[in-house]
């Protein structure tokens, strides 16, 4: 696994309801993000594990998820309300967290259909993701 702190793109997974609830500006994340005080993000290498751990068949999240991207440059460019990208330890590695409110929505990278998450046990078999593309196999 590549060092998450070198990622130029970080990913945010949303359920359909979280997508509907997302405002066009001044987004502070999901209810969980708000509770925890930061927006939870994953690197490309971490995304399959995040899908499995938090959005698997036992999660009740449904069969459709939305994968959004934050580029480091967009976080660095935000000036109206300062935000900070910080990598904090979790699950034996470090994950990106945005502290503060994002001026704009992250960019929709793809719609992920997990079809009852039957294949969630081996994410790398059906999902290829890197800093530029998200591909369902």
From TrEMBL:
Source taxon at top rank: Eukaryota
UniProt xrefs under SUPFAM superfamilies: ADP-ribosylation
A Pfam family per the record: DUF952
Name of the protein in question: DUF952 domain-containing protein
